[in-house]
Write a structure and sequence with these properties.
alpha/beta; TIM Barrel; 2 domains; six-stranded antiparallel beta sheet; 13 helices; 21 strands; 29% helix
């Protein structure tokens, strides 16, 4: 588990805010001119129980035209982090990319960082497809990035499997390459800017890293964990060391190779890798993502198998690595019945993992661009009660959205001054009030708050003893020994 400065175990529920295009900061459709975050945005985030935002601080915003840092972009990002922190929401800084560059049908790096001719790679989209893509000579961008060929069904992710993408990542991972140096400069600047900021919980070293040159070395694709034993591991180590040279205390998250994420395979990192760092990973179904979710019984069975297998494998990986995990992306489905059911299935399984996982939904713009009813459906699904800070040792917790039954079991710390904080989503699940009960009776002092309740050990006699806390709607029949709120 992650620990805070008081030694409490921490869980975060939250959301991604990532703007992949210029100006690379939260868009003015969502964030008002002259403001970093609007008050209305804060209300939405708090209403869904968000305690963290995974914020994309983008390479294109940092170094738009060359290796000279854009200080104003970094300062704007600081304002966003500050506004979130002022309202009790932490930030996880994300170096975001997907397929690395517009020149290979992706995004993430400015044009000056990649010279496609220097890759000596097959033309797009080979070998993913043997059709040809014409390149605009004025921009260097492919004129069409529509998926084609046998991998068309996986959508834009097809472009990861092209020779140009693989060799571009190999260039990023290579020691002392211009792109590698730019990424080192990015993390040095970010760490210097945010060192010690109370609103920043940590840094994610690279979103969805690809394996590298899979055409030159097919084993990177074919062997489970192979990618994390070579150049990708070296990249993570190097960026970790850049940050640690500036900031000895920040939380750092590394990620598995994207192919191992998608195929539910074991990661190749081993115990002792980047001591003190955690692992970020994603959970997406192979069908229905970027759409309505699984829409047939067969697709639903496939998704449930996919989701459960991936979470089981990551739980095993984390136990082997001896570190904590954070699901930094999931969801990406429409707020229709099938999409919301897929979200709920995954959320329930995050809670049943050992230990339960922190998570961030993809993404805030999906909520903001929707109409009132669809927005409310997203928020209600995400606003699940959870213990966000545990003064003691969490054993388990569950929430049944249909009955609003929340239950958690933990061993409270004997330090009675520390508080356990439980978010309840009162406006969504307990509009008529709620009832708190516990076993054994009298073990905890319960206080209501704007976000839910705090729990405090009532004395040394209960320190270290397991306590089960139950919360139900006040509409239900009374419970013996319950506290009515």
């Amino acid at each position: 588990m992650f620990l805070d400065s008081q030694g409490r175990q921490r869980l975060w529920h939250g959301i991604n805010i990532v703007n992949k295009g210029a100006p690379f900061h939260p868009s003015l459709d969502v964030f008002a001119p002259g403001q970093s975050v609007t008050d209305e945005d804060i209300k939405v985030l708090l209403s869904m129980g968000a305690s963290v935002v995974r914020l994309g601080i983008m390479m294109g915003g940092m170094f738009p035209d060359g290796p000279v840092l854009n200080e104003s972009y970094l300062e704007y990002s600081m304002r966003v982090v500050g506004k979130l922190h002022d309202n009790g929401i932490d930030t996880l800084i994300d170096l975001h990319q997907d397929v690395l560059s517009k020149k290979v049908c992706g995004e993430g790096t400015p044009d000056w960082m990649l010279n496609v001719s220097s890759l000596h790679a097959m033309p797009l989209p080979r070998p993913a497809s043997y059709s040809t893509v014409e390149v605009d000579p004025a921009t260097g961008y492919p004129k069409s990035c529509e998926p084609s060929g046998v991998l068309k069904s996986i959508g834009w992710s097809e472009w990861y499997t092209t020779d140009q993408c693989g060799k571009a990542f190999a260039q990023l991972y290579a020691l002392n390459s211009p792109m590698s140096k730019a990424f080192e400069a990015y993390w040095r600047a970010v760490a210097l800017k945010f060192k010690g900021h109370p609103g920043v919980i940590g840094y994610e070293l690279l979103n969805e890293p690809w394996v590298g040159d899979h055409v030159g070395s097919p084993s990177l694709l074919l062997e489970s964990g192979r990618a994390e034993q070579g150049l990708l591991k070296d990249y993570m180590q190097r960026m970790h060391d850049v940050i640690r040279a500036v900031d000895e205390d920040a939380l750092i998250l590394y990620a598995p190779a994207e192919i191992n994420n998608r195929l539910m395979r074991r990661v190749g990192y081993e115990r002792g890798f980047l001591p003190g760092a955690g692992m970020a990973y994603h959970v997406y179904c192979v069908v229905g993502t970027d759409g309505p979710g699984p829409t047939t019984p067969t697709q639903e069975k496939l998704c449930h198998y996919n989701d459960k297998s991936q979470m089981k494998q990551r739980q095993e990986d984390l136990a082997r690595l001896g570190t904590a995990g954070f699901v930094t992306e999931f969801g990406a489905v429409d707020p229709v019945a099938t999409g919301l059911a897929e979200m709920s299935f995954v959320l329930e399984h995050f809670e049943s993992m050992e230990p339960p996982s922190s998570w961030a939904f993809w993404d805030f713009s999906e909520i903001q661009r929707r109409g009132t009813e669809e927005k409310a459906a997203y928020i209600r699904t995400l606003a699940r009660p959870y213990p966000r800070a545990i003064a003691g040792t969490l054993r388990s917790y569950t929430f049944d959205a249909s009955s609003a039954l929340f239950q958690m079991t933990f061993a409270p710390s004997s330090n009675g001054s520390m508080l356990t904080e439980v978010y309840l989503g009162k406006e969504h699940h307990y509009r008529s009030g709620f009832i708190v009960s516990m076993s054994p009776k009298g073990a905890l002092i319960v206080q209501t708050t704007s976000f839910g309740v705090t729990l405090q050990s009532s004395g040394e006699a209960f320190g270290g003893q397991e306590v089960t806390v139950t919360v139900v709607s006040a509409n239900m029949s009374s419970w013996s020994g319950a506290i009515f709120v």
